[in-house]
Amino acid sequence: MTDVPKTHPRYLSLTLRDTIVAGVEQGITSVHGLIAHGRGEAFDYLIGEATQPFAIEAIHAAAAMLRLAEHPVISVNGNVAALAPDALIELGQVLSAPLEVNIFHTETGREQRIQEHLLHHGAPDVLMPTTEAQLSYIDSNRKFVHPEGIFKADVVFVPLEDGDRCEALRKMGKEVVTVDLNPLSRTAQQASITIVDNVVRALPLLCEEIREFNNLTAENTVTRYSNEAVLKKALEHISRCGNG
Ligand code: PTJ
């Protein structure tokens, strides 16, 4: 790990960089994941490296949607596995939902290493992609899913996604909850609910919100939620920052 001192003004951001680099070194994160992380960092900088009200609004709706789901599933790629394994496991526990490995960049053994990493962190079980169940409308490695996991899910939590699968899942009639720092990404635009925040900040807040969840107002929360309006607020926030 880095020798950056804790007093460094960018200590947290630099520590996260170390974590993602360690993910690559352990063979969990794809080397492409470093580029995705850098893009995320740029947007995080623009939103002020803090959870903003538009993210809180989306987290509230996401908690309701995930709690109302009959079969929610948490999709895990190489970036999220490295950045937030404990929070992913906690989310699985509060929702009683399975974690499922699903990656875009195929590399021998990486899916197994992600599975082992999550089991090592205390996940009770981790579903793996299969050839038995495949998503429609998509050609990449992401189409291979587990029949009892993403294939069967009514709501899929897919943080840091590439747009294709989000679109495919929506076409298949599933709801998608994502976390993406870029409000302009295809995933952000196509998901049912987009939390525009860093996944390391958003996941613990989402778990907390689900724990304090009020069943009586849940349906209303989901019905009233507008992802378009929330993304607009995120973009307005970014433009205000840009204008000083
Ligand atoms: O492990 P794999 O093979 O499935 O690959 C995972 C990545 C993330 C490399 C893959 O899904 C990919 O290429 O994603 P994209 O298309 O680069 O999109 C990633 C999105 O996540 C971008 O919009 C980034 O801004 C955003 N992002 C990056 N880091 C974070 C983030 N959003 C939230 N929190 C972050 N820490």
Topology:
Blueprint: H1 11-25, H2 32-47, H3 53-68, E1 72-76, H4 78-83, H5 85-95, E2 99-101, H6 110-120, E3 126-127, E4 133-134, E5 144-145, E6 155-157, H7 163-171, E7 175-179, H8 186-190, E8 193-195, H9 199-211, H10 215-224, H11 227-242
Parallel strand pairs: 1-2, 1-6, 2-3, 6-7, 7-8
Antiparallel strand pairs: 4-5
Helix pairs in contact: 1-2, 3-9, 3-10, 3-11, 5-9
The structure holds ligand PTJ.
Q: What does the model show?
A:
The chain has 11 helices and 8 strands. The strands form 2 sheets. A 6-stranded parallel β-sheet has the order 3-2-1-6-7-8, with helices on both faces. A two-stranded antiparallel ribbon has the order 4-5. It is an alpha/beta fold. The model has no long low-confidence stretch (mean pLDDT about 95). Ligand PTJ binds near residues 77, 181, 185 and 198.
The gyration radius over C-alpha positions equals: 17 Å
Mean pLDDT: 94
CATH topology: Rossmann fold
Q: Give the strand order, joined by hyphens, for the main sheet.
A: 3-2-1-6-7-8
CATH class: Alpha Beta
- Domain count: the total is 1
- Topology as H/E string? HHHEHHEHEEEEHEHEHHH
Which structural class should the secondary elements be placed in? Answer: alpha/beta
CATH superfamily: Phosphopantoate/pantothenate synthetase
What's the number of helices?
11
Shape: globular
Ligand species: ligand PTJ
Percent of residues in helices: 40-55%
| Number of E strands | 8
